[in-house]
Amino acid sequence: MRVLASPSWSFGRDRRLLSACGEILGDLPLTVHYCASDIDHNRTVTTFSGEQEAVEEGLLRLCDIVLPAIDLTRHVGVHPRIGALDVCPFTPLAPFRTKLRERRFREWVESIGANLASRFDLPVLLYEKSEKGLHESDLPTLRKGGFGGMIGREIPTDFGPKEVHPLLGVTVLGWRDFLIAVNSHLPTPDITVARAVAGMIRELRSNGDPRMLGVRSMAFLLASQEASQVSVNITLPDLTPVDPILEFIERTVSDSGSQVKFHELVGAIADQHLEGATRLHPRPEQIVRVEAAARP
């Protein structure tokens, strides 16, 4: 079965390590959709797809070179994180056709979590469709308090130790539906406007505005670029198109006397979501083909 993986790593200022990640993925029978770092977030996102065996091998090879290079006690970046391999979602790109294949996919994802826990003495929390009732299933709740907030307390892990790894933290891993991540860049280091817009999106979502169904939002200061950023995760892209969200951001930022310089797609987008995302301009490799029968 073809699978999309999008592991996010807590490093973003080591160009040689980023280059090594690209070389590893390029040596395997995988399609690399995205492999990029951000200095201010101090984060790297790798997004790739292929058959399950190749995806698993790619992830493990990345872990072998990336994890030894990370020490979260020395990590500084604007993006929330609790782990060196902070989060690793898997999304099937083909229909299961039978309940047996669905169960085997679930077991495959869990086997990767167990392997990482054993191999690196790493606490692993399953999330989204893989969560088994031991804790919350959504990433923002699991990240609450950050790496520092987990030190010294028991963690209800699915695999591995019940306490945070002193250097690598905790990894969140699981099977999820498609998610679209977009950063809207404002050419000002004054984060006031970005924070106000992100807050309005969260309020509209809470109030049931259909444009913001399943939309998560945060604001970030990008000091190295003398800019700020509204970051949104669209967790229900089959129900919530991208364009109305970006139109709202553009209009609200303009009303505040600023402007959106550009929108950046982070990771990949499924081909069926392109029609409602005309304000994005993904590179060809960022577009993922999904078999029609796998679509909701």
Jot down its keywords:
296 residues, alpha+beta, Formiminotransferase-cyclodeaminase, Chain B, domain 1, Alpha-Beta Plaits, 2 domains
Word description of this protein:
- There is one protein chain.
- 30% of the residues lie in helices and 24% in strands.
- It has helices at 15-26, 52-66, 99-120, 139-143, 146-150, 192-206, 242-255, and strands spanning 2-5, 8-9, 31-38, 43-51, 85-92, 124-126, 171-175, 180-186, 215-222, 227-234, 262-266, 269-270, 287-288.
- With 296 residues, the chain is of the alpha+beta class.
- The mean pLDDT is 96.
- Strands 1, 2, 3, 4, 5, 6 and 7 form a seven-stranded mixed β-sheet that branches. It has a four-stranded antiparallel β-sheet with strand order 9-10-8-11, with helices on one face.
- It has two domains: 2-175, Formiminotransferase, N-terminal subdomain (Formiminotransferase-cyclodeaminase, Chain B, domain 1); 180-294, Formiminotransferase, C-terminal subdomain (Alpha-Beta Plaits, 2-Layer Sandwich), CATH 3.30.70.
- Helix 1 (15-26) runs antiparallel to helix 2 (52-66).
- The longest helix is centred in the middle third of the chain and has 22 residues, at 99-120.
Shape designation = globular
Largest beta sheet, briefly? Answer: 7 strands, mixed
CATH superfamily of the largest domain: Formiminotransferase, N-terminal subdomain
Low-confidence stretches: none
Structural class: alpha+beta
Please write the string of helix (H) and strand (E) elements.
EEHEEHEHEHHEEHEEHEEE
CATH architecture of the largest domain: 2-Layer Sandwich
E-strand count: 13
On the 0-100 scale, what is the average pLDDT? 96
Radius of gyration: 19 Å
Work out the oligomeric state of the chains in this entry: single chain
What is the rounded distance between the termini?
Answer: 17 Å
Share of helix among residues?
A: 25-40%
Q: Provide the number of structural domains.
A: 2
